[in-house]
Amino acid sequence: MRRLRLYARLLRLFLVLGEGALFAAWVELRERLGGAPMALRQRLTWRFMRHLRAALPFTVQIHGRLPDTPVLWLANHVSWVDIAVLGALRPLSFLAKSEVGDWPLAGWLARQAGTLFIRRGAGDSLQLGRQLAEQLAEQRHLAIFPEGTSSDGSAVLRFHPRLLAAAVDSGAALQPVAIRYRRDGQRDPLAPFIGDDELPAHLLRLFAADRATVEITLLEPIASTGLSRSELARRAHAAIAGVVGAGEPNVAGEAQAA
Fold first, then answer.
1. For strand 141-144 and strand 58-63, is the pairing parallel, antiparallel, or unpaired?
2. pLDDT beneath 50: ranges in the chain
3. How far is CA 165 from CA 27, 125, 134, 156, 159, in A?
4. Whole-prediction pTM
């Protein structure tokens, strides 16, 4: 039965990825014919992410209120699953490390979705900051993982303040988001995608296991006006770490489970 369940899950995933490839091909065609607006990319990506989230072996619980106006989303980073779960909530564009752009299929999908890539130590943070600020100024949701890497989910790593320059420049508020993976009431040891782990092997481990839970906690937004990048990073980190390291989240409201 476990093997049949694994095959059924993988079949559903491949069907969703096929749908994503069609969306990406349409965006690429539009780009060659004269341009693919970011709004179109985000709309198609949102639809794809909702289908991808449904195909993953996780029950999603959402605490807090979704922002009504475009903000800069900041979340702790545990797994590639984070992107599917967050991307299913709102039409979002992501900031990802440049290595993601080289992943087979996933990298191509990410590029067509309008993902912005950052190279470690490449000195292009100023240009990237301008791109992020432009997206926020055009009233689009953006999501970044300010730790700069993924963790095992037991704690929140240091946030990099330089990634928050776009919020300071545009005046956009920050939306802190805490992500926790739970399995049998404990921190999920399978969900983290860290170190030298490879995506196919990690995917097979997740799909062969029983369903787990991912908790998404949307905390109180943080106004960026009058605050430095360092102070914004400190406040967002404290808010997210307070949920990741605690039992019960302290939030403004609660939305229904997805």
1. unpaired
2. 248-257
3. 29, 9, 12, 20, 13
4. 0.87
